[in-house]
Amino acid sequence: MIKNLLYSFSPRRLAILNRYYRITRFYSFLKNTAYKGGSVTAIFVLLLVSLEIFLLDFNIILNNLVTIYAPKIIYTVFLISETVLGLLPPEVFIAWASKLDAPWVALFTLASLSYVGGIIAYFLGTRLSLIPSVKNYIENKIQKHIINLRKWGGIFVFLGAVSPIPHSIVSLASGLIKYNFKRYLLWSLFRYMRFILYASIIFGIL
To answer: Where is pLDDT greater, at 18 or 197?
Structure first.
């Protein structure tokens, strides 16, 4: 095991990986993803500030959500969203968490639900892969993600966990092509990092 680990970080191995990533245009993809991630974050922050200044008190809306809806309802909606194609942006739920008595506990709960939602999507993919017509339909719809997953493996799962690339779709694709489940679980743990980084920004604004 130690020998394999040392080989993975050997200059020759790193040179081969670097050449492979250049050939498959991974660095260009990474640059574009980072740009989109920064843009999405900036737009969301500007939206919050604009709403607060020009239109309405966003804090009142969030406080009303806390008052009207029990946390279990919000958590249930979020889990469904994180399982089915990432229908709702996690940033909205992070903003909601900032208004609770224990915001960081709520944030950890949201991150865990997102992680679990990805796992559910993974197993949904494995089951759908057994139905040829459904598998072909979904593969056509998310073909780009499947191609990238096959090219870059765990690195692409990592990007799905931390970037605007929908984590649930990457998880579904991982199940469809039967990507190694243990590796999927490991790379998906970086989902927690995204929630911590976004919360550090949003909690400071609201």
So the answer is: 197
